[in-house]
Amino acid sequence: MPSSRMPKLMAEKKEVVQWIEKNGGVSTPAAVYFKNERGWKISEAQVRYWWKQRTAIKAARALRSRLSGASAKPRLSEIEDILFDQVLFRRSAKAKVSRDWIRDAGQRLAASELGDADFVASACWVNGFMRRYGLSLRRTTNLTVLTDDVLTDRAVSFLSYLTSRIDGLSDDHTILVDETAVYLEDPRRQTVDQVGARHVVLKSTGFASMRVTAVLAVTATGRKLPPLVVWNGAKQDGKIECYCNVYVVNQPKAWVDSALRTRWLDLVFPPIFDTCTQGKALVWDSMRTHISKMLKAWCAAKGVQMFVIPGGLTPYVQAEYLDLQVVQGQTVAHH
């Protein structure tokens, strides 16, 4: 139950100090006097604290309610560094750290290091601890975790392989391919609104979770090629339809398997991948269907070189390759 005690202004605290000075310099009777005579809700501990701080109270402005620098100090100031080290150790081991874990660890440290078994580790304290040490809740990323040595070795090997073959490629017949999920509605349920708003409502079509898979392609000259849109549904007759230069097909779970990919390449790019054409190449990431036996056999039959971005290097090697070697600043994605 919240306390009904009201904070006292410095003018009132000055009055208490003056009363104590006039009555023998003993603080204890002052609490009884002001409770009975003035109806104040104060404790003897408060009065003793005011008397101890009498010099600062006399010098303070009358309308202030607190002394400068008198705010509460972090209760675990002596051992918060230990807790922060534990957080860093767990994260270095890729272990999850939650606010509840910080609260529980703070309580354990308070009991073991300070002998304080009553420390609550409130949400307010957790907020303060995270703010003081620059911590925040983060979403996990889906990048492949590689050590610096492995990352460097893969990058050097791939660029060495690419450099020795890039001069024999034709920009018009080198295709970069990628897939992305396209949602029919923004699935995020967050928006900017006024502080304290009781109702935060967003319009919805009811299709927030519905998505299609878009297979995007561009040549090394920067020319966008007709995309493939894959809807979630039964295969039906498996026919790929064309609408306004966009190819559309139904697949269970909107997945793009090796068979569908080879059908799309045969349908859309026969002039590019003609057997008489020299310098043909496909560039894409290391998704499992990109390196399947079916696709490797298809590339071998067509005389198409396959360049697969090694796992973990897509945000580094592919981005720089596209920017500097391929489209020279033009965007590749059809978002």
TrEMBL record:
Keyword DNA-binding (UniProt): yes
Gene Ontology MF terms in the entry: DNA binding
UniProt keyword annotations, A-Z: DNA-binding
Pfam families documented for this protein: DDE_1, HTH_Tnp_Tc5
Superkingdom to which the source organism belongs: Eukaryota
Domain HTH CENPB-type: 67-139
Protein known as: Unnamed protein product
Organism, scientific name: Phytophthora fragariaefolia
